[in-house]
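Lecture 7, part B: from sequences to assemblies.

Below are the input chains for today's worked example.
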Amino acid sequence: DTAVSQTPKYLVTQMGNDKSIKCEQNLGHDTMYWYKQDSKKFLKIMFSYNNKELIINETVPNRFSPKSPDKAHLNLHINSLELGDSAVYFCASSQDAGPSYNEQFFGPGTRLTVL
Amino acid sequence: GQNIDQPTEMTATEGAIVQINCTYQTSGFNGLFWYQQHAGEAPTFLSYNVLDGLEEKGRFSSFLSRSKGYSYLLLKELQMKDSASYLCAVRPITGGGNKLTFGTGTQLKVEL
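Predicted structure of the full complex, as structure tokens:
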């Protein structure tokens, strides 16, 4: 009964490659997010989708392209991987994007290592 | 812009009480969250404050002062399993959106 799941859990790849990370939530939430946590454990939001619509797009290189085929899925595709992309990527979801109290539930993370 | 400050590390003794502080400067304020993150795991929600005052939840309490841009997380009766990173996060946007801006986290070590 996993709430927010991500695949793969670990990803090791060479510089210049293209890779994808998948995320799925079975909580019935309307909003999903991608976060990047760097080596100093700083957690920073990258994107957010509400009902398949992009609502938050932080200053992220356009090599990163999120895709939401439906509100239960939010995938992250990364082109031309660079050393600095090495980090843990967390997917999260919440009930909606409104102003009321709505905690975000995080997936287990994908540890990406670019060699 | 947003600026959130927390101590980098703290050490406390099992059974004791520890207070982890968080100060913030954000453009707009719509709630402050505390998350716990064990090494190699996902952050998990601990508490939420949007009005001034103390919110208590078992061994954990969180306090907010909006005028001072200040919050703290209070952990009582510390247990070894409380050793983790504690992340303060502010939701700066009002009227929509659920963007969270996180601090760098406080690594708490609980010792015997």
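Note for the exam: The CA atoms of residues 23 and 37 of chain A lie 16 Å apart. Keep this in mind when comparing with the next example.
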